[in-house]
Amino acid sequence: MDVFEAIKGRRSVREFRPDPIKEGDLKKILEAAQQAPSAGHCQPLEMVVVKDQAQKERLARAALGQTFIAEAPVAIVVCADVARTSRRYGRRGEELYCIQDTAAATQNIHLAAYALGYATCWIGAFDEGAVAKVIKAPAGVRPLAIVPIGKPAEKPSPPQRIPLSKIVREERF
Hints:
alpha+beta, NADH Oxidase
């Protein structure tokens, strides 16, 4: 699939069919995340793949009751090992770069999953401490996104976008 087709076609899906994800496809999705750029090549990315139903239900509760997380066959918790970036960049690495790096990885997850025929949703609304507890994250590892993945059971319409003419400036504002 063409990358521009994936970028324009991907939607946030909150209804999933129970069909399992092929292990080979899951590996491709995880490898796509691994290939994301990172500041200073510090690679703070850590991922927890959750397939166990009870574990997905705990994640859904930690995500403020977003029950569709538990309906997907797989949920990936995207985390940052903050020290990997802060050792090199200090506070800016801790507060910005590791978040940008994991966001790039999360976007790759979405695009790779879509290209393989799966649907995703970027979950950022959750109790970080509760999610860390569910996945038993060690100290210094922050969960920053949850991505449920599965075959879509809905086809959301494209959302309205602000026109480029309203968001692009040349040289300055």
